[in-house]
UniProtKB/TrEMBL annotation:
This is histidine kinase. Residues 178-229 form the PAS domain. GO terms for molecular function: ATP binding; phosphorelay sensor kinase activity. Keywords: ATP-binding, Kinase, Membrane, Nucleotide-binding, Phosphoprotein, Transferase, Transmembrane, Transmembrane helix, Two-component regulatory system. Residues 494-705 form the Histidine kinase domain. The chain crosses the membrane at residues 9-29, 137-160. Its EC number is 2.7.13.3.
């Protein structure tokens, strides 16, 4: 209150001085105006007198008297610098002039008679005397004002000294003593204490605050309180701080949708418990913040919660794994369990990748919450690319924000996030990757890593169980197929043997008749019989080839030479049908194969490709080496730009007696025999096709077969 009185006293004295100076300035301006107004009036009066005399003289045509009058008047009045009488035709009737002055004013008057202009009087007067008189007045007035100001200032200083400074010094001493006691209490407190003003700046801090935040007390004082918390909380804290100072009460901080966190000088974040106590002072409202680091408490609490949800998730995954549902449904249920864990700050978005036929490619099997752009971009991720590919390559967890460099898949409108990729590993082999979309700014956590690696091991067991069941089912189907083919082989061999002898006889007699037939009609009929017999013999040969056990004549060959040899046989037909042949041969090692059998496979597929490019096209043959499931294969890829194979018939192309060459009277055994030859080599054939775009057959033959002489 006293401080307020002192300020009021000083303000009143200052206001008096301002009013005094205002009065002085007003007097000066008013006096100057009056003096100049008087001088102007005198000058106009002189012009009136001169004008009367000039009017009378001009009417009398007495111009000589005008000249005499003007000279006498100018000499008598020392303040006149120049007088001039000018006729309407600009003729100077009379003129008087003396040395000019630095401070002069000009006046002008017209002389007329009976609405007729007789002359113009121009007069210039020296106002220097007026200016000097005014300056003398200003000097006296300002000198008096300065003396009064000095006197008033001395009086003010003495009054403040007696009424304000001495009591203020005593009050400052009292405040310092109270402040020292308050600081002693702060230093003895076990928690960090910050004394914050209503602007949000730290006014005082204790040693515990210095230790907690890593700043010296000098650095803490004057720092905004928001600087001591993570960036993500600063804007919301400013709003709540302003609201708190409007109605301050003692309470705990938090409960506004976020838990308080502190930010140390080294960038370390830590959870805190904060109690707020408002303190009212003459300088305004301050808040004493009692801050306690609760990191250990949070760690213990989180471990208990993590343990509970870990056991719950593992139990749910095991339960899902024994349910009689499709494998992808099992993966969907597992992913839902992972994304629903409250201990992981996910955005409820994620997916599970598996490595299937291609060991260098991750295939997205299930996902939750992904937009179409991500589903398309990440349907197949090469191992070693983007975050999931890096996780699969390294066999380790990868964490990255969406806008950092390793994150390659981006799209317009992408929600800010972090990616958390956990490899699914079993026996040192990566089976897939779990990708979880986390909140932006997520920091990798050791407990989260341990939890997710344990879950990934459980998922690895589920995947291996599925793979074992799938392999078992595949072997069972292969066994059934082998038994069927074996029975078919025995049947077809017997039937072919019974048919072959009569067919040979029919062919022989038909050829004899063709030599003795006389009429053209008879020769035509005999030609049809011979053609049909040849076709049936070809079918019988194919059936016997398909049904018999084959012995391979294995030798080492350069596959490029074999393919070039085959292509030469098709050069003429390709030229005739406007089909362009393109080759893409990589430098691959020699391969151990049965040359004749593999030539039959390649020739058969090339022949089919040519047959289905009715209007011409491009035949592309590629040769390269590829690793599949830790095994090295030679791949021969044959692509055409023909009509393609409908999807409903694609799975039937390798079935015996299935053909789309109805008009060409195909046997339906070419691709079946080709498949059998490749499988006899330990390889396999894949086909991809799109209607209207063409088909691609990929022949995979493994490296590692031994020649017969070895």
């Amino acid at each position: 209150m006293k401080g307020l009185q002192y300020k009021r006293t000083i303000f009143i004295f200052a206001l008096i001085l301002i009013i005094y100076f205002g009065i002085v300035v007003t007097v000066i301006v008013s006096h100057e105006k009056d003096m100049f107004d008087m001088s102007y009036e005198n000058a106009r009066g002189e012009l009136e007198l001169i004008g009367s005399f000039v009017q009378d003289a001009i009417i009398r045509y007495d111009y000589a008297s005008i000249e005499q009058f003007l000279t006498r008047w100018g000499k008598r009045h020392k303040d006149i610098i120049e007088l001039k009488i000018i006729a309407p035709n600009n003729f100077v009737i009379a003129h008087f002039k003396r040395e000019p002055s630095m401070y002069s004013f000009s006046f002008k008057k017209s002389v007329s008679y009976e609405n007729r202009n007789l002359a113009t009087i121009e007069m210039t007067k020296d106002f220097s005397s007026v200016k000097e008189s005014l300056n003398h007045f200003l000097v006296r007035l300002i000198s008096g004002a300065i003396l009064l100001t000095v006197f008033t200032g001395f009086t003010l200083w003495y009054s403040v000294r007696r009424l304000a400074l001495i009591p203020m010094e005593k009050e400052i001493a009292i405040r310092k003593e109270a402040e020292e006691r308050f600081r002693t209490l702060m230093e003895s407190a076990p928690d960090a204490l910050l004394y914050v003003n209503d602007k949000g700046k730290v006014a005082m801090a204790n040693l515990q605050a210095e230790k907690l935040f890593g700043y010296s007390i000098a650095d803490l004082i004057g720092r905004e309180i928001e600087d001591l918390m993570p960036v993500r909380f600063r804007s919301i804290h400013k709003r709540h701080r302003d609201k708190y100072f409007q109605a301050p009460t003692a309470r705990a901080m938090g409960g506004h949708g976020y838990e308080p966190y502190g930010l140390a000088a080294d960038g370390r974040e830590f959870p805190v418990d904060i109690s707020l106590s408002p303190v009212k002072t003459e300088d305004g409202i301050f808040v004493l913040a009692d801050i306690r680091d609760i990191t250990e408490h949070k760690i213990a609490e989180r471990k208990i919660k993590q343990g509970y949800y870990f056991q719950k998730t593992i139990s749910s995954i095991l339960q899902i794994s024994i349910e009689n549902i499709p494998f992808e449904k099992q993966l969907e249920g597992i992913l839902d369990e992972i994304l629903s864990m409250p201990t992981i700050p996910s955005l409820r978005m994620g997916c599970i990748f598996l490595i299937e036929e291609k060991p260098d490619t991750l295939v997205m099997k299930v996902q939750r919450g992904y937009p179409d752009a991500i589903k398309e971009a990440c349907s197949n991720v090469p191992v070693g690319e983007c975050l999931c590919g890096l996780s699969a390559l390294s066999g380790d967890i990868v964490v990255c924000d969406f806008d950092e460099r390793p994150h390659e898949s981006r799209y317009k409108g992408m929600t800010p996030h972090s990616n958390y990729c956990i490899p699914i590993v079993s026996g040192g082999k990566v089976l897939g990757v779990i990708s979880i979309i986390m909140e932006k700014g997520y920091k990798r956590d050791k407990e989260d890593d341990e939890l997710m690696l344990s879950i990934s091991k459980t998922i690895a067991g589920v995947i291996e169980r599925h793979m074992a069941e799938k392999e078992k089912q595949k072997l069972h189907e292969q066994l059934i197929q082998v038994e069927k083919l074996s029975a078919l082989g025995r049947l077809t061999a017997n039937v072919a043997h019974e048919i072959r002898n009569p067919l040979t006889s029919i062919g022989g007699y038909a050829r004899r008749l063709s030599k003795i037939a006389l009429e053209d009609k008879e020769k035509e009929y005999i030609g049809v019989i011979i053609s049909e017999v040849d076709r049936l013999e070809k079918i019988l040969k194919s059936v016997l080839t398909y049904s018999r056990e084959s012995r391979l004549d294995l030798k080492s060959y350069k596959i490029a030479d074999i393919v070039n040899e085959i292509l030469k046989t098709f050069e003429i037909v390709c030229y005739e049908r406007n089909i362009k042949i393109e080759k893409d041969f990589a430098d691959v090692p020699d391969i151990v194969i049965d040359k004749d059998r593999i030539k039959e496979v390649i020739s058969n597929i090339i022949s089919n490709a040519i047959d289905f490019m009715y209007g011409g096209g491009i035949l592309t043959i590629s040769i390269f080496q590829e690793a599949i499931k830790d095994a090295s294969y030679l791949c021969i890829k044959i692509s055409d730009t023909g009509i393609g194979i409908p999807s409903d018939k694609l799975r039937l192309v390798f079935e015996p007696f299935f053909t789309t060459k109805v008009m060409e009277r195909g046997t339906g055994l070419g691709l079946a025999i080709s498949k059998k030859i490749v499988e006899d080599h330990g390889g396999f054939i894949k086909v991809e096709s799109a209607v209207g775009k063409g088909s691609t057959f990929s022949i995979y033959v493994p490296y590692g077969l031994k020649p017969l002489n070895q």
